[in-house]
Design brief:
The complex is a heterodimer of chains A (268) and B (347).
Chain A lengths: L2 E10 L2 E11 L4 E5 L6 H8 L7 E6 L2 E2 L5 H5 L2 E4 L11 H7 L13 H13 L15 H14 L4 E5 L7 H16 L3 E5 L3 H7 L2 E6 L2 E6 L1 H4 L2 H8 L3 E5 L6 E5 L14
Parallel strand pairs in A: 3-8, 3-9, 6-7, 7-8
Antiparallel strand pairs in A: 1-2, 1-4, 4-5, 9-10, 11-12
Helix pairs in contact in A: 3-4, 3-5, 4-5
Chain B lengths: L1 H5 L23 H18 L7 H9 L4 H36 L11 H15 L5 H24 L5 H24 L5 H9 L7 H28 L3 H6 L4 H23 L5 H13 L3 H25 L8 H20 L1
Helix pairs in contact in B: 2-4, 2-13, 3-4, 4-9, 4-11, 4-12, 4-13, 5-6, 5-7, 5-11, 6-7, 6-9, 6-11, 9-11, 9-13, 12-13, 13-14
The chains are: A alpha/beta (268), B mainly alpha (347).
Chain lengths: 268, 347
C-alpha cells in the first residue's frame, strides 16, 4: 500500500521541525530516511505513523488521510516501531507478539484463529519462535529487537515504519535485522526505516530520502544519489564513496582527515 | 540507555514494573487456594467477634429464624461487614493495579498518590457540613473527592512530559496536603475525635448494609470498567509511542483509567476511611501469581484485596476483643514491611 506525504509541516514544542515536505512511497518500496541528528527525520517518521499531529499538510495511507482514519484502523494496515522501546520487559516474547493483535481485537479481546495464526507467523518470520517463552529482560539486544519486530508483524501490516531498528546492535545483528526487513519487503511489504548507518542504507534499501534541517536534501536510489558532495552538504563531514566489489553498491565513508586528528604521542 | 540495550545482562531502569520471579513458572495454583482462603476467612468472620458463635450457630442464623440472636448477629452485623470489607479491598486493590499500570511505577497506589486523601477530605467535609448526611451522600462526595484527586494528579503530572518520578512527587505532595486538611477539619469539630480515629486509620467499625448499598452503584461500574480497560492498559505498558502505534488513544485512556481509580477509591473510602497499602500490595501479589497481563491480573488483584481486607478486619476485631482496633492498622502492619521489601529488593 502506498504512503503519500503532502506538504507536511510538523512542529515540536512550538518549533517547526519538518517544513512543507512532500514525497510518495510506492507500494512495496524499501526506503531509508537518513539525515544528521536533529534533522527531523524521527519526527517525520512519527508524523507518517500518525503519532504526531501535523501543523499543516497530510499523510495519505492509500488514498485516505490517516487523520481521518481511527488510530486502530491505521494500526491494522500500518505498524510503527519506535526507537528502542523500553516497556514490556517482564513479558515473554509470545506475550509481546500477542499485543500486536490489539488493533484487530474487540474490547474483550477474545483470541480467534486468525489471531493465533498471525502471532505464529510473526514469530516465525522474526525468527523468535525458540525464544517464545523467554521474558524480554533475559534477551540480548538483537533478540529483543526481533521480538519487537514480531509485535509489529503480528499487526499484519502492509506498511512497516521503523525508527533506527539497528541502533545498539552489533554488526552481525544489524545485518540480520536488515535482511529480515529485506525479506519482508520482497514479500510485498512497504518498509520505511530511519537509518543512521549509510552503509546499511546503501546496501539494503532501494531509495534514500535525506532530511536536512526539516527539508528534503535529496531523494533517490543510493547508487545514484550517494555522492560525496551531496552527503557532505547534509552531514557536514568530508565523505568519500567506495564501491563494494561484490555488489557494486556504494559504500559511503568519512574521509580520514589525518591532519585534523590528534596523533597519539609515542609511548602514550 | 545505549549501554542498557547493548548489554545482554543489563537491568532496566528502576521504575519499570517487572516481576521479581521472571522466567519462572507462574504459580496460578494460588488462585483456587485464594478462593479457598476467602471462604475460610469469611466463615471465621461470621463466627468470631465481640461474641463468638459456633459454626452451627452461624448456619442456623443464616438459614433460619430459630436462633434470633445468631440471626441478628449474622445478618445485621457480620455478613454485611464482611461484604463491605471484601468490596473495599477489591476496589482499592483494583485501583492500585490500574495506577501501577498506568504510571508504570510499582510503588503507585491510591494512598501514595493522594487519591485516598482527596476522597477522605471530601468525606470529612460532607460530615462536618451535615452531620445527618445519609450514607449515599457520603459515598457520592467521596467519589467526587476521588475524581478530583485523580484529576489534579492528571493535570499536574501529565502536562508535558510524563515522568514516574514527577508523578510520585506530585502524589506525595497532594497526599500530605489533603491529609493535613482532613486533620485540620476534624480537629476543628471536637465531637468527632473518637470516630475520627477509625476513619483516619481506616476501619470497618459499624459497617452495615447501608454502606454496602451506597458503594455498589460506584463499585460495580468501576470494576467492570477496570476490566474492560485492562486490554488497553496492557498496551499502554509498552510505552506511549508503541501504544499509540497500536491504536490506543494514550491520553484519553489514561484519563479514563485515573477516573476509574478515583471512583473505586472514593467508594472504598466512604465506608472504610483511609485504608492504606491494600492497593500497593495486592497488584504485586497478583502479578506474581498470573504474570503481567492485566486482563488476569486485575481480577486476581481484586480477589487478593477482598481477602486482605476481610482478614485484616478479622484480626482487628480479635486482637483486643471484645473491643477492636482500626483495620487499617493491620493492613499497614502487613503493607509497610512489604513496601520496605520492594524498596530493598527491587530498588
Amino acid at each position: 500500500m502506498k504512503l503519500s506525504v503532502r506538504g507536511l509541516t510538523l512542529a515540536y514544542a512550538g518549533r517547526t521541525v519538518i517544513e512543507d515536505v512532500s514525497f510518495e512511497i510506492a507500494s512495496g518500496e524499501m526506503v531509508a530516511i537518513i539525515g544528521p541528528n536533529g534533522s527531523g527525520k524521527s519526527t517525520l517518521l512519527r508524523g507518517m505513523a500518525r503519532l504526531h499531529r501535523p501543523r499543516r499538510g497530510m499523510v495519505l495511507l492509500g488514498e485516505t488521510d490517516i487523520r481521518s482514519m481511527g488510530a486502530r484502523q491505521v494500526a491494522r494496515t500500518l505498524a510503527v516501531l519506535p526507537q528502542s522501546p523500553d516497556g514490556g520487559l517482564d513479558l515473554t516474547v509470545r506475550e509481546l507478539a500477542w499485543r500486536g493483535r490489539f488493533p484487530h481485537q474487540g474490547v474483550l479481546q477474545r483470541a480467534t484463529k486468525p489471531d493465533y495464526e498471525a502471532v505464529d507467523w510473526a514469530m516465525h518470520v522474526a525468527d523468535v519462535q525458540r525464544l517464545a517463552e523467554r521474558p524480554l529482560i533475559s534477551l540480548s539486544g538483537g533478540e529483543r529487537q526481533r521480538a519487537w519486530i514480531a509485535l509489529a508483524l503480528a499487526q499484519q501490516p502492509r506498511v512497516l515504519l521503523l525508527d533506527e531498528p539497528t541502533s545498539f546492535l552489533d554488526i552481525a545483528h544489524q545485518v540480520e535485522v536488515m535482511q529480515l526487513l529485506r525479506r519482508l519487503n520482497t514479500e510485498g511489504m512497504t518498509v520505511v526505516s530511519v537509518l543512521h548507518d549509510l552503509v546499511l542504507a546503501a546496501r539494503f534499501t532501494d531509495r534514500a530520502i535525506a532530511i536536512d534541517n526539516g527539508r528534503i536534501a535529496f531523494d533517490g536510489a543510493p547508487k545514484a544519489v550517494f555522492e560525496p558532495k551531496a552527503l557532505e552538504a547534509v552531514f557536514g563531514c568530508a565523505m568519500m564513496i567506495l564501491t563494494d566489489p561484490e555488489s557494486g553498491l556504494p559504500i559511503p565513508l568519512p574521509r580520514s582527515a589525518v591532519g585534523a586528528l590528534p596523533v597519539a604521542a609515542p609511548g602514550a | 540507555m545505549a549501554g542498557m540495550a547493548a548489554d545482554t545482562t543489563a537491568e532496566p531502569e528502576a521504575l519499570h514494573i517487572r516481576s521479581s520471579f521472571r522466567g519462572r513458572p507462574r504459580p496460578m495454583i494460588l488462585v483456587p487456594l485464594a478462593v479457598l482462603a476467602l471462604i475460610i476467612i469469611g466463615t471465621l468472620s461470621m463466627m468470631y467477634g465481640a461474641v463468638n458463635l459456633t459454626l452451627p450457630d452461624v448456619w442456623s442464623g443464616l438459614t433460619s429464624n430459630s436462633n434470633v440472636f445468631a440471626r441478628n448477629v449474622v445478618w445485621q452485623i457480620r455478613y454485611p461487614r464482611l461484604l463491605d470489607g471484601m468490596i473495599v479491598g477489591a476496589s482499592l486493590a483494583v485501583a492500585g493495579s490500574l495506577l501501577q499500570g498506568v504510571t508504570r511505577n510499582p510503588l503507585a497506589d491510591p494512598t501514595i498518590l493522594g487519591i485516598t486523601a482527596a476522597a477522605g477530605l471530601a468525606s470529612a467535609t460532607a460530615i462536618v457540613i451535615d452531620r445527618q448526611i445519609p450514607q449515599w451522600g457520603i459515598a457520592m462526595s467521596c467519589v467526587g473527592g476521588g475524581l478530583f484527586g485523580a484529576g489534579v494528579l492528571f493535570v499536574i503530572a501529565w502536562r508535558g512530559a510524563i515522568s514516574p518520578v514527577r508523578l510520585a512527587l506530585a502524589g506525595v505532595a497532594l497526599s500530605a496536603f489533603f491529609g493535613a486538611a482532613i486533620v485540620a477539619l476534624l480537629s476543628s469539630s471536637r465531637t468527632f475525635l473518637q470516630t475520627s480515629l477509625g476513619f483516619l486509620a481506616g476501619g470497618l467499625y459499624g459497617a452495615e448494609w447501608n454502606d454496602f448499598h451506597a458503594m455498589l452503584p460506584y463499585v460495580i461500574p468501576g470494576l467492570l470498567a477496570a476490566w474492560l480497560l485492562s486490554g488497553r492498559l496492557n498496551v499502554l505498558a509498552l510505552g506511549d509511542d508503541v501504544a499509540s502505534g497500536l491504536g490506543v488513544a494514550t491520553d484519553r485512556t489514561r484519563l479514563l483509567i485515573l477516573a476509574v481509580c478515583g471512583v473505586l477509591t472514593g467508594a472504598a473510602v466512604s465506608v472504610a476511611g483511609l485504608v492504606s497499602f491494600v492497593g500497593l500490595v495486592c497488584p504485586h501479589l497478583a502479578r506474581f501469581t498470573v504474570g503481567p497481563d492485566n486482563r488476569y491480573q486485575i481480577p486476581v488483584s481484586a480477589l487478593y484485596g477482598a481477602i486482605l481486607v476481610a482478614a485484616a478486619d478479622l484480626v482487628a476485631r480479635l486482637v483486643i476483643a471484645p473491643s477492636e482496633i482500626p483495620m487499617g492498622i493491620v493492613t499497614a502492619g502487613v503493607g509497610a514491611p512489604f513496601l520496605l521489601y520492594l524498596v530493598k529488593v527491587k530498588g
